[in-house]
Design brief:
By secondary structure, this protein is mainly alpha-helical. The protein folds into 2 domains: 58 residues, Winged helix-like DNA-binding domain superfamily/Winged helix DNA-binding domain (Arc Repressor Mutant, subunit A, Orthogonal Bundle), CATH 1.10.10.10; 45 residues. The protein is built from 4 helices and 2 strands. The chain has a two-stranded antiparallel sheet with strand order 1-2. The chain is elongated. The N and C termini lie far apart (61 Å).
Length: 104
Amino acid sequence: MTIELDALTCLRYRSMSITMSQLARTVGCSRREAEAAIETLRLQGQPIVADNAGLRLTNDPVELQAYLEARRRRLVSQYKGTRALRRALRRLKERTDLTLFGAA
């Protein structure tokens, strides 16, 4: 069996959430491999949601909608941080360029 299939089987037969670390131990892989497997399953259309309690499959459209909104907010936040870091990088490069050419 693949890690993805093992992870999906684990999620299907649990009545409660499971943490990523618990899933990795149960499936017998590293946490990073478990994270990759969960994302692969999501890309295949599996309705896997997560919260502070852990991961679980859901059949509730309201719960899935709330999870999607939370992911969107995190994505927007990361994008804003990335833009700010790009501006900082430009400033650092400009400062370095000025120093290299003796204008500082």
